[in-house]
Amino acid sequence: MSDPIQRDVGRPRFWERYPLDELSNAEWEALCDGCGKCCLNKLEDEETGQVELTRVACRLFDDATCRCANYEIRKQFVPECVVLTPKSLPDSAYWMPRTCAYRLLHEGKPLYPWHPLLSGDPQSVHDAGVSAQGLTVPEFDVPEEDWEDHIIEEPV
Ligand code: SF4
Ligand code: SF4
């Protein structure tokens, strides 16, 4: 499959050699593994701060491609959609999926071998079973009080 994310844009092994705030925009974008799990709704326990991922997806999420169906104008439909940047990452990392490349690097961990930057294949994230492909239910179909019935275990 062709990769919707441009990967051959950076310095060799840039994610291991440079801090996140020194990456070019293209290198930053290339870090996304395409899993789509940040577009799933989460439940946060107000007392413990624990975050659980559900398979209830954002209204714009397409789980066949694991992409946003209208990325350029998504804020018109989903104003709460977070734009992840090196600056916003420290505040957002705790609710990002545990396998998310941005969260891993923020926590000083290496990327998994299935990351397309390492495997050279965008399909490897789906084959590894760590993406949201074919996994979701639309948020229109599930009232918020039932989201806890759709919590998913994250691979770690
Ligand atoms: S969870 Fe992280 S790696 Fe996965 S799609 Fe979202 S930003 Fe990209
Ligand atoms: S608006 Fe698009 S990018 Fe934002 S959470 Fe929804 S599907 Fe994901």
Automatic annotation (TrEMBL):
Pfam families: CxxCxxCC (PF03692). It comes from Palleronia pontilimi. InterPro entries: Puta_zinc/iron-chelating_dom, UCP006173. Belongs to the UPF0260 family. It comes from the Bacteria. This is UPF0260 protein ILP92_07435.
